[in-house]
Design brief:
By secondary structure, this protein is α+β, with helices and mostly antiparallel strands. It has helices at residues 4-17, 41-48, 162-171, 176-180, 191-201, 214-233; strands at 23-28, 57-59, 62-66, 72-77, 82-88, 97-103, 121-127, 133-138, 275-279, 282-286.
């Protein structure tokens, strides 16, 4: 599932190619892609016509396109394989095309002469596994779709409160990787970037959150931010063709991963073979030497 860097790359693409454009019509090609919009596909299509997208926004892994001059937004749930693509009108339909949104204007992508004359570009939602979808929601006073109002700020948000995060972390009877994946505590971190940040921090994924001191929490947050910014710089992580940018290109951070997916490969710090362990229907990758499991004594809470 796309994490913060991948969703942010898509958001930036939409900001360039979909923001401030007026919707001429929408077409729903598969009912599952609109299942989170309770009134149904006909209502979704009817209510979008003639409205204008504002600048796309994101919180953690959640992406939405506000509708200008209305208290509503289109929330995009990418799921496991959802793609938001900007395509010329005359481009062949993708095999798993689920929703099409056409605009009233024409906008040609850079380096593609003749597209504007052929009718410009449209926004397509493509989803092979149909776990994702689009839906229309009322927004809160902060501009968030109401269904994600409980989602915490992400670590790249200028208003992320590191002190409040530390206090909440210490108050959880949990372990650190579980806490990093708790979107009500800190958003945007998923399995890949949790493993990467924990490797950089030399922390085992089962380290109890009650043992964290403020300096240790600050160090971990620094690594979370660093790994996400590094991923953003190269377009995110693509292990297959299911995650792509709005232009269909893949990200390249998978070539720079230090932990995730490197089972049996040498640790980049100490050369010890990396290990993989089943964890919450996922996998955790770690170095058994650099990231030692917590000892019984470590289970006692540390000073704040």
């Amino acid at each position: 599932m796309p994490e913060l860097p991948e969703v942010e790359v898509v958001r930036r693409g939409l900001a360039r190619w979909a923001a401030h454009r007026t919707i001429a019509e929408a077409e729903v090609l598969h009912p599952r892609a609109i299942r989170r919009h309770a009134p149904g596909a006909d209502d979704f299509v009817h209510r979008l016509k003639g409205l204008r997208f504002d600048t796309p926004r994101r919180r953690g892994k959640y992406l939405w396109l506000p509708l200008a001059d209305t208290p509503f937004a289109v929330l995009a749930h990418l799921g496991m394989s959802g793609q938001m693509l900007i395509k010329p009108h005359d481009a062949p339909d993708e095999k798993h095309l689920r929703i099409r949104i056409r605009f009233t204007d024409t906008m040609a992508p850079v380096g593609a002469p003749g597209v504007a004359e052929a009718g410009g570009t449209e926004l397509r939602f493509v989803d092979q596994r149909t776990f994702g979808g689009l839906s229309l929601h009322e927004t809160t006073p902060d501009g968030l779709p109401d269904v994600i109002a409980h989602i915490a700020r992400d670590p790249l948000d200028p208003r992320f409160d590191a002190d409040a995060f530390h206090t909440a972390l210490r108050g959880r009877r949990s372990t650190i990787k579980r806490a990093l994946l708790d979107q009500s505590l800190i958003s945007g971190v998923g399995n890949i970037y949790a493993d990467e940040a924990l490797w950089r921090s030399r922390l085992h994924y089962e380290r109890p959150t009650a043992t964290f001191t403020r300096p240790r929490t600050a160090e971990l947050l620094g690594h979370v931010r660093d790994v996400m910014n590094a991923a953003l710089a190269v377009g995110g992580t693509s292990f297959d063709s299911l995650y792509v940018h709005v232009n269909g290109e893949s990200g390249y951070f998978d070539r720079s991963l230090d932990a995730y997916g490197r089972e049996s490969e040498p640790c980049r710090r100490c050369a010890t073979p990396m290990r993989r362990r089943p964890w919450m229907n996922r996998s955790s990758y770690f170095c058994p030497r650099c990231q030692r499991p917590p000892r019984p004594a470590a289970l006692r809470p540390a000073l704040p």
